[in-house]
Amino acid sequence: MDLPNSLTEPDGSAVIRVLCYNIRSLRDDEEALARVIRACAPDLVFVQEAPRFFRWRKHAARLAAKTDLVVLTGGATAAGPLILCSLRVTVERTEDVLLPLTPGLHRRGFATAVVRIAGVRAALISTHLSLQAAERHEQAGLLLDRLAAMDAPYGIAAGDVNEGPEGPTFRRLAASLQDCRAVSPWGGEATFPATAPDRRLDAVFASRGVQVLGCGVPSGLSDGLPGIHEADLKAASDHLPVLAALRLPARP
Q: Keywords, A to Z (predicted)?
């Protein structure tokens, strides 16, 4: 099954492609990463582990340029999560959010934005949740609260959950939002490690009003994405990307 392309429907609804990708601070093959992202033709890229240190803005801008996208928000100011977007997206507002710091653990944050696509408003959150189970579960609650407070008809959250669908944090998110892969499976399932994936740690979630047309790990020609090659997927990062096609119905 081919994943639908981005389009604006006659009734004003927007079909968008959303990509979720942990890029390991661009420590791997950046050209392979750019080829994978371009081949997915996304409207939105929810990035985790974006560069956070020396000249991080320059590195983020370079990746955006290589993928025909622009930097929407995030990066070091969100402790790693970043959002890239196509020129189809109109930005209404952005905010980078640092989460409470647990001594001895890595600082976490959200890259957030409210955007319009074909006139349809949506709230976005890119996240990378904690490695520590209790903190991770608390952060999921903060994410749900934040998404609800952003006051948009639709919400999309994507990121590295750091646990699989059987875990309590993943289940907490899926109880309030749609786990897009579970709703409409497409492509592959496991996202980590890229060289021999056996766990689904990365996911796209959407609010109940969003129609999920397909979601999963792109694998190439069999998925209607001839620009995706296994060698690039393995070389680009230690995680595989998750690509979703979502329909956002027009709202009066």
A: Endonuclease, Hydrolase, Nuclease
Say which amino acid occupies 136: R
Domain limits at 220?
Answer: 10-248
Residue 219: the pLDDT is: 87
Q: Where are the alpha helices (DSSP H) in 108-162?
A: 133-149
How many structural domains are present in the chain?
1
Which residue has tokens 């899926």?
174
Rounded to a whole number of angstroms, the distance between the first and last alpha carbons of the chain is 32
- DSSP H or E run through 23: none
- Non-local (6+) Cβ contacts of 176 within 8 A are 144
Does the pLDDT value for residue 222 go beyond 70? no
pTM equals 0.97
41-45, 105-109, 198-202, 243-247, range with the lowest pLDDT: 105-109
